[in-house]
Write a structure and sequence with these properties.
The complex is a heterotrimer of chains A (259), B (309) and C (278).
Chain A (H helix, E strand, L loop, with lengths): L5 E10 L2 E11 L4 E5 L6 H8 L7 E6 L2 E2 L5 H9 L1 E4 L11 H6 L8 H9 L3 H13 L15 H14 L4 E5 L7 H18 L2 E5 L3 H7 L2 E6 L2 E7 L5 H8 L12
Chain B lengths: L1 H18 L4 H20 L10 H13 L12 H45 L18 H23 L2 H12 L4 H24 L3 H9 L4 H35 L7 H10 L3 H31 L1
Helix pairs in contact in B: 4-5, 4-7, 4-9, 4-11, 5-7, 6-7, 7-9, 8-9, 9-11, 10-11
Chain C lengths: L1 H14 L4 H4 L3 H12 L20 H33 L17 H26 L2 H12 L3 H25 L4 H8 L4 H35 L7 H10 L3 H29 L2
Helix pairs in contact in C: 4-7, 4-9, 4-11, 5-7, 6-7, 7-9, 8-9, 9-11, 10-11
Classes of the chains: A alpha/beta (259), B mainly alpha (309), C mainly alpha (278).
């Protein structure tokens, strides 16, 4: 069966003295499209990073497809990570490589070091054509052999999405896919991600601070505020009051909030 | 249908591949360098296998047997004796030679820093023009135009010449001219490093943020005032970083230049070698290495202070 | 800081017993300088020696062939140095095993590897590259000369060892200083430490590494020429010989050949670095 379920079980994360997430439990079933909303510093990014195992929880457990992420062996963890595509806010591409190499790098998690050397330096025709196909799907097929840092911010984001897709993932995580591109492109990016997740039946979790986009494209919204879940409901039953609760400025936390 | 599509894609990829932006110059340079390396190993007459011939091994054996400290020749190794032997040499010649080596490097690098900064100003293209940091309002007279058109390129070329000739050759020639003192070594090091520091400083000047300077210039500041008030504070930290970084190299070179006959460590290295005292020879080589390591350490320490300030 | 530097200057100046008047060349020195400088524009094209033994090659042939030897020694030494630099640079770099890539399990045998073996390898190679670097190429050459006798391999090794150490130090610093975000991203997609090192960190440092290698090649050319002063058949040997037999025109010929080679490399490395810039 395609698709992977994700589960957080009483997870807390602390960075030094600040609590990023506190006792968060939720489960996302395969093929769901979920939006994480909330003010900045509410723990959205941390939650996403927990899901691909790049942040360690101080308490609680993360399960991917039923298996607990933090007791997996190194190899198994690599395999799980290889099946989770992550689109970062700042793209995190290698700037001076060709677009094709950045895309192909998505598959590194599945191959040995020796094979990856051949793949990155002398990619087979099939590989390159597959990269081209995916780049066409995200709309920049003609940039295949361009140097990545010669692309615009929006195009680089598409490369980042293409890299995540090249992993042949079952889950797609996206951290603020709209914040680093101009507003006209923001909608395109979110639409692209949802379209692909629908076509491939991928689980999609993205953090958004544009509430309109979140409501338009996600079928379920999770509201986070200061590391806690405020609401977790299907989009259809979300009211304006939910959002005002989320962005309410509480007693004396106007300046104290942050990070 | 599917096959048709694949074929189309494959053609398109080929087309993109043919049109991709390529850095032919860099690629060609790398191939050329690779070819050069291969040619040098094949035709360079490097005599690699000859190194293991019997007379080489005999040489090595002799060297290894004589490299033991003199009081221990033909005896069991004894740390106490070896150490007191080393201490003796260090007191007699080593300390003095170490201090001279450091002294030569310090005087040389400070001279180089001074002259290098001076030469950096006319070498910087943004300063060495008829209207630095401001747009030209009226065309300058022809003489000024020619002067400024030539100033930066000529200074830059002079800097290249200074650094293209190795210190050792400068010192070798200067020794014949100046006679034996520490000066030829110092001047040789200073010349070479002036060339290097001058270029580095010129690049810093060119990368400087022009806004405050154009404001100063707009107020009617003279070129020299610009340099003193506007540039100096901006250049000093970076200049000091470069200075300390080059000082490391200066210590290395100062050790070696002694081989031409100045009182640094190199002098004692050649001296010991000429007398076939291989034990003393090795001692001074190792002492040189220690001095260099200490120099590196001091330089790293000073650079950290500059970075923090 | 400036004050300290001035104090250092004064100390060094007085310690060396330097006197300003020694800076002025003596009359004999001036004569040498005059005669030497006079030939700057008229370098010799044929041998200037009074007596040329039968079978001696023409001067220009000697100049060019010693230039070739200089180049070959530099290239061979540099290639060996590059090899050492890449291998030791890898071990002297921390970013393929240390650093917070996240998601490491709380206890596992591979942690022991990361805690003990890799730091030991790292420390060991740091010590080795510092030892290689601490001795000047000329001193390595003299050391080999004394141990083995005159051999061209000694010249190559003498260049390769200190250059290898320096390249290793600079390479590892360049790789360790690149931005880590792309590496984190690949790590998150399941790539191993070595894979992220090779495909996220090294590519970002590569332009700098290539530029620096070209620059060091130019330095190797100078070092190789200098080694001639110790008997190797590079340009330095002939500069020394001609200078001591007062054939200043010949000295200029050799100097111009060396200068030409260095200038070509200076231009070349500059051109490569400009084109590698983003």
């Amino acid at each position: 069966m395609k698709g992977t379920s994700l589960e957080l079980d009483g997870v807390s994360v602390q960075y030094g003295n600040t609590t990023a997430l506190e006792a968060v439990s939720l489960s996302i079933s395969a093929g769901e499209r979920v939006g994480l909303v909330g003010p900045s510093g509410s723990g959205k990014t941390t939650l996403l990073r927990l899901l691909n195992g790049s942040v360690l929880p101080d308490q609680g457990d993360v399960h991917v497809s039923g298996s607990p992420l933090y007791t997996l062996s190194r190899t198994d963890l690599r395999r799980v990570r290889a099946s989770i595509g992550f689109v970062y806010q700042d793209h995190r591409l290698v700037p001076n490589l060709q677009v094709s190499q950045n895309v192909i790098a998505g598959q590194l998690g599945r191959v040995s070091l020796l094979k990856s050397l051949r793949m990155m330096l002398f990619p087979s025709r099939v590989m390159v054509e597959k990269a081209h196909e995916i780049l066409c799907r995200v709309g920049i097929g003609e940039k295949l052999f361009e140097r990545t840092d010669h692309l615009s911010g929006g195009q680089q984001q598409r490369v980042a999405i293409a890299r995540a897709l090249f992993q042949e993932p079952q889950v797609l995580l996206a951290d603020e896919p709209v914040s680093s591109v101009d507003p006209a492109r923001a909608k395109d990016a979110v639409e692209l991600l949802t379209r692909i997740s629908r076509e491939e039946n991928l689980t999609l979790v993205m953090s958004l601070h544009n509430l309109d986009l979140a409501r338009e494209y996600c079928e379920r919204l999770i509201g986070l505020r200061r590391g806690r879940i405020v609401f977790d409901e299907p989009t259809s039953s979300i009211q304006e009051s939910h959002f005002s609760e989320l962005y309410r400025i509480g007693e004396g936390e106007m300046l104290a909030d942050g990070a | 249908m599917r096959r048709q599509e694949d074929k189309g894609r494959s053609q398109e990829v080929q087309l993109l591949l043919a049109e991709r932006p390529r850095n032919r110059f860099v690629r060609g340079s790398l191939y050329l360098l690779l070819a050069l390396i291969m040619v040098s190993w094949t035709f360079g007459d490097l005599q690699v296998d000859e190194l293991f011939s019997t007379h080489r091994l005999r040489n090595l054996n002799r060297f290894l047997s004589e490299v033991r400290p003199f009081p221990l020749h033909g005896k069991e190794w004894d740390w106490g004796v070896a150490l007191s032997w080393a201490q003796e040499i260090f007191k007699r010649e080593g300390l003095e030679a170490t201090l001279s080596t450091l002294g030569i490097s310090v005087v040389a690098i400070l001279l180089a820093g001074f002259f290098g900064s001076l030469m950096a100003l006319p070498a910087a293209r943004n300063l060495a023009c008829s209207e630095p940091f401001l747009p030209e309002i009226r065309p300058p007279p022809l003489r000024a135009r020619v002067f400024y058109a030539l100033l930066a390129p000529v200074t830059r070329f002079a800097l290249i010449l200074l650094r293209a000739i190795p210190e050792y050759i400068w010192a070798f020639i200067l020794l014949a001219v100046m006679g034996p003192s520490a000066w030829p070594a110092i001047v040789a090091l200073a010349i070479h490093n002036t060339g290097i520091l001058g270029r580095l400083q010129a690049e810093t000047v060119e990368n400087v943020n022009p806004n405050p300077l154009s404001a100063l210039r707009g107020l009617g500041g003279k070129r020299s005032q610009l340099a003193a008030v506007g540039l100096l504070p901006l250049l000093l930290p970076r200049g000091l970083l470069y200075l300390f970084y080059r000082w490391e190299t200066c210590v290395r070179e100062a050790t070696v230049l002694g081989m031409l006959g100045f009182s640094s460590l190199g002098f004692w290295i050649t001296d010991a070698r000429a007398r076939l005292q291989y034990d003393r020879f090795l001692f001074f080589v190792l002492l040189g290495a220690a001095v260099v390591l200490i120099g590196d350490f001091i330089s790293a320490f000073l650079r950290r202070i500059v970075r923090k300030a | 800081m400036i004050l300290c530097l001035m104090i250092a200057f004064v100390w060094a100046y007085s310690h060396l017993g330097l006197r300003g008047e020694d800076l002025h060349p003596s009359s004999g020195g001036l004569k040498v300088l005059g005669e030497f400088a006079a030939r700057a524009l008229t370098p010799a094209l044929t041998s200037e020696a009074d007596f040329v033994p039968e079978g001696t090659r023409p001067l220009l042939y000697i100049a060019l062939s010693s230039a070739r030897t200089t180049l070959f020694f530099a290239a061979a030494g540099m290639s060996l140095g590059l090899f050492l630099g890449i291998v030791l640079g890898f071990f002297s770099s921390t970013s393929w095993w240390a650093g917070d890539f996240g998601g490491v399990r709380r206890s596992s045998p591979s942690r022991i590897l990361g805690r003990v073996l890799f730091p030991v390898l790292y420390g060991g190679s740091r010590v080795i590259i510092n030892l290689m670097r601490s001795t000047h190429e000329v001193l390595w050459a003299v050391l080999f000369l004394t141990a083995f006798g005159l051999s061209n391999t000694a010249a190559v090794l003498a260049i390769a060892i200190p250059y290898g150490g320096t390249l290793a130090k600079i390479f590892s610093e360049m790789v360790d200083e690149t931005t880590r975000e792309p590496a984190h991203a690949l790590r998150g997609a399941g790539a191993s430490g070595l894979q992220t090192y090779s495909f996220a960190l090294v590519p970002q440092a590569l332009p700098d590494m290539i530029g620096y290698s070209f620059y060091r090649f130019e330095c190797a050319l100078r070092s190789s020429a200098i080694l001639g002063f110790f008997g190797f058949p590079t340009l330095g040997l002939f500069i020394r010989q001609s200078f001591s037999s007062l054939n200043y025109g010949e000295v200029w010929t050799f100097l111009y050949v060396l200068l030409g080679m260095v200038l070509i490399f200076d231009w070349w490395s500059g051109a490569v670095r400009r084109r590698l810039a983003p």
